[in-house]
UniProtKB/TrEMBL annotation:
This is Protein odr-4 homolog. One of its GO terms (cellular component) is endomembrane system. It comes from Nicator chloris. It comes from the Eukaryota. Belongs to the ODR-4 family. Signal peptide: none annotated.
Amino acid sequence: MGRTYLVEESIGQYLTELSTKVKPYITGLLIGQCSPQRDYVIRAVRTPPKEQQQDESVGPPKLASLDEEWITTHASQVSRMLPGGLLVLGVFMIATPELAKDGQNALRKLIFSVEKSLSKRRLWKPAEEEVSDRAALQICSATKKVVCRTYDVQDPKSSAKPADWKYQSALTASWVALGCTVNVNIHIPLLATSPSHDLEKNTKNGLNRWSKQIEDSVFLINGQVKDEDTELLEGQKKFRGNTQPSTQFSDVKVLTQLCQGASTRSTATVQVCSGSINLRGAVKCRAYIHGNKPKVKEAIQALKRDIINTLSDRCEILFEDLILNEGPQKKNFGREYHVLPQRLFVPVAGSSVMLSDYKFGDEAAGEIQERFVEMLDQPVQAEDMHIAEDIST
């Protein structure tokens, strides 16, 4: 028996609209959440067109011209905009009938490329019982026939399995949001043996150590420690027949352990350092979880990943910005303060889920609006952008 994908109804209209614009083919990403029983697709986003694609209409159309790197870069950018609990669940392609035969092979290749690119950036490891199937959705632009298959991204030899694609209205109406503020004070020594321009690598190593601390933290949900295998909403009133997006919100406190327990033996090492990086500030984190009897451990895992992702993503964004503005050959390594980009949240039309982005202090609202249109094919009003935090350094 294959997997079932429950899909937000508006995605059907979005894909139908795209199929009227097909010039041999259109590709894109499916965004949503995996759960042991079924998967939820809450958004589909087309791949942004490349400027030089206009002059490609020479000779018969071929899927061989598919720009894999462009699509995986888009997936990496989009994954930064997803709060905890959401991920790139798969890829879709709308193609003309003559390309249909090669479509599935192209989609299979894309699924593995996208997953490889996304897993390279993660500072956390997937759990053993985690769903590793990703969706390949193919739509014929002429007949509008939809074919959904899945591939197991943990198995390079994986073959296609059939999957059900079912539309549903108000899919996220009963989802639960979890939010927390984490105070960050990370000290990362720069070893004298490592070249100073390896700041990015050193930062990643420091964040890796910190992420293990987050993994081992205790999470209080609405002031209580809950057993991981209990239902998240146990004892809470259910709102029947309510199809308006009205997220139940859980406030979470994160308690990190100050030192290792007596059972683990610690060995200190002395290393010669040429400097250090300090990351300080308070970060706002958020995760969403489906309303179908979610377990406490699913919710906590989603929030842990958001905490780890949001810090590593903005360090990545800062380094990209520094290289862009100052070049990689920067010589002066005195004491410097850099402000990490602030997090903001933006509502998704017709959904109770919010997406996220990062803004530098001097960035205008218009630039962020442009980014939402380019990356997520979603217009955003300036007044809908909620900046969640103060400035962090």
